[in-house]
Amino acid sequence: MNPPAGALAPGLHLVATPIGNASDITLRALDVLARADVLAAEDTRSLKRLLEIHGIALGDRPVLAYHDHNGARMRPRLLAEMAAGRSVAYASEAGTPMISDPGFDLARAAIAEDLPVTTAPGVSAVVTAVTLAGLPTDRFLFAGFLPNAAAARRRALEELAPVPATLVFYESPKRLGGMLADAVTALGPDRDAAVCRELTKRFEECRRGTLTELAGFYENASVKGEVVVLIDRGSLGTVSQIEIDQSLSEALQTMSVRDAADTVSRMLGLKRRPVYQRAMALQQDREDGQDEQD
């Protein structure tokens, strides 16, 4: 059924909002925000400011908060609005909904009830940082936020060490120095990396260097604003990861981590450091599995 002139089709409309510069928003996003029956936002104050900047009248339309703390309570109301044939526009606080954003549960619920879901795509801190960092863009992995605890963070980084892609993380300014130091330990000191901060804002910054250089710079630096960290892929050569893991698992049955890494790197013609890092991760998995059995 075609919607009447001036109205949006019923269902959920995900709206990407600026991560910095208010001009980053798309014409389609402005159109959706102007015509939706119901507006929902992670931060209603941010959305109202955005509407004011772009001259969009709110009228008598409701603006409902939808975030991690009220999602379970607010979701049924928004789903009921869609089921009644109304259009609901959901905007994240900044960037694209569903990317480290509470809109995930709302979209999943709408899909589960066979309600229409569409998106007005736009800016994303992940893609913006990838375009600025100067690291390989043919393949990248967005890993979100790492764990807060240092030990868990190092384990997570070790698991990502062999991934053949540029690694992309969101990080808190307060944890940036510690995260980079752990990355040096888990991924090696010489990997190229970049720290992107305050993207599309007045004081946008993209600092590039090796992990060692960046860890040294940010060790005691005062950092403000939203941060994206990008780290170049490791160099495990053309041997498949399955073959590397199988060889290491066999070697670890009779050898120490160090000896297993030496043996496998020589056998497969690979650089020792990434093989050693992978051996440490596999050994940790073995030990964790034994602890669970005990």
TrEMBL record:
Q: Where in the cell is it found?
A: Cytoplasm
Q: Where is the RsmI HTH domain?
A: 241-283
Q: Which NCBIfam families match?
A: 16S rRNA (cytidine(1402)-2'-O)-methyltransferase (TIGR00096)
Q: What is this protein called?
A: Ribosomal RNA small subunit methyltransferase I
Q: What family name appears in the similarity comment?
A: Belongs to the methyltransferase superfamily. RsmI family.
Q: Which gene encodes it?
A: rsmI
- Keyword Transport: yes or no? no
EC supergroup of this enzyme: transferase
Record has Cytoplasm as a keyword: yes
- Could you tell me which Pfam families the record lists for this protein? RsmI_C, TP_methylase
Give the Gene Ontology MF terms in alphabetical order: methyltransferase activity
Main location class: cytoplasm
> E.C. number, please?
2.1.1.198
Which segments constitute the Tetrapyrrole methylase domain? Answer: 12-215
CDD domains tied to this protein: RsmI
Q: Which reaction does it catalyse?
A: cytidine(1402) in 16S rRNA + S-adenosyl-L-methionine = 2'-O-methylcytidine(1402) in 16S rRNA + S-adenosyl-L-homocysteine + H(+)
The GO biological-process annotations, alphabetized, read as:
methylation
Q: Which UniProt keywords apply?
A: Cytoplasm, Methyltransferase, rRNA processing, S-adenosyl-L-methionine, Transferase
Q: What does this protein do, in the record's words?
A: Catalyzes the 2'-O-methylation of the ribose of cytidine 1402 (C1402) in 16S rRNA.
**In terms of domain of life, where is this protein from?**
Bacteria
